Prior knowledge:
By secondary structure, this protein is mainly alpha-helical. Helix content is 70%, strand content 0%. Helix 17 (298-323) crosses helix 28 (561-584).
Amino acid sequence: MKPQPGWPSSSCPSPSFSPHRVDVCVVEMRLSVAARKLWCIRKQLIVLLVPLLFLPLLFTLPEKEGKCLYVVLLMAIFWCTEALPLAVTAMLPVCLFPTLGILPSKKVCIQYFLETNFLFLSGLLMASSIEEWGLHRRIALKVLSIVGLQPAKLILGMMMTSSFLSMWLSNTATTAMMLPIANAILESLFGDLETLKEKCKSPSDPELDLINGTEQNQLSTQSTFLFMSEEVEQCDPRTPEEIQSEAQYQMKVWKGFLICIPYAASIGGTATLTGTAPNLILIGQLKTYFPNCELINFGSWFAFAFPLMLIFLLVGWLWIAFLYGGLSPLCFRKNERAEAEAKAKAVIVEEYRKLGRINFAEGAISFFFILFAILLFTRDPKFFTGWSVLFKKGYVSDAVTGVIISSILFFFPSQKPSLSWWFDSRASNAPYVPLLSWKKAQESVPWNIILLLGGGFAMAKACEESGLAAWIGGHLQPLAEVPPAAAVMLITGFVACFTEFASNTATIIIFLPVIAELAIRVSVNPLYFMIPATIGCSYAFMLPVSTPPNSIAFASGHLMVKDMVKTGAVMNVLGILCVSLAINTWGVAMFNLTDNPDWAQTNKTTQVL
């Protein structure tokens, strides 16, 4: 047998040496090539084969339930594997539900722009204007200049700032803005990162010599070390071991800074309805399944979720500061510590100085931002009478409030109006610039998420009208034996683990209908299960691929997967415990969760009929 072109000489023996081994090598190479080609077209294969794989569902289950489950499973697989873009998968109900006879198109299409989508859009427009004029950067630098420069305080400052901004901006934008600020502060404290990494290594480690290989490399390493040692002896009385220990500690603190930002951004997004998409999906699905439930709005959600965010932020800060050495003073000698802290403070002050005095646009955005938050919070907070009583009941919602404020941004001027401009012939006649332009809105608003929300609402509507939710609920009856408090922890833990591998939006879309039906079957207030599940799906801390903020922090190149797994596993547990505490204490009091409400009973009766 002649050798084939492309055979690697090191892995495949000469044909004359062993024909049998050559045949094995050929087979292995062909399998490897085939596997690589299959991997290249894996998404196309999923799109083509998964619908065929699930075809038996159409013939083995009740007609409407089977068809709806077929579409739900297709969308779940496509979302988890991203075989199709998330937004494209979200549009599948428009073509599949009408053609399979599940829902008419007029009922499907209307789900893609419910009032919940308008509330989400208004929050995104407000966030776009804040980013446009740099107000978020001013807030971040101001907070960091106040909290102090000890590692624990700085980590707390980073987490407080990231979580607050993430309540209004996207988690991704918050993380992308905060990481460069963190790196600048760290470089002023500890110097260049690459130099710090070199100090962490042991120059006399024999394993490094073996890795380096040749005797020439060994001699070069030894001579470099001797030269460095002489320099250290002249300039620094500490031993190489002490220098290495200090550098390793500083490297730990550096990692703590980087890892706390995406975690705090994910935590902060849970505090407001517009902070993250799963919160809005909860509202939309409540309107679908329980139209008479009016307990959740911007104000009542904030009153419940904001204290939970603060508790989890404090507990998470203690864990991260403990794990990464932030609870200790900076590992410097006294005079060096003062010098490093002065440099870091100078960096923050200088960055803030570059922003200049707060201008008219920033002041206007601040005003409308505060007005936006106050109006949403006080419309109908449930624990006191809101301003919505001034209007006809049921006519004014959070979406109306949000759209009014965000619309003003498109015509309110970004420069202070002046009466003298009318009488000054030399003044510029250029058109005034509003606080937000439509071009900027088009660029910064993630329209794909709005489609994703719509796809989730369409799926929920189909699950309800086809009877699939009730059918699944009937098969969950054995779970009625589990105590509700334990069920809350199990549900939150399961969703938090699942969202490590899938989008949090897709996760809550898939599981929220099942969780709602489970609550009805076990005669528990649906909010008792649905609220923890919604919050839990934002607690994805363990993997770089879990959320975009995690990916951004990991892409810096200074974190390892094991760092995120070690930190994130405990964060997940802490998050589950905090959610369980919140829902069983002030959550019970706020939403009256001890009773099985009439609005849930009405829905159950409707489904049975």
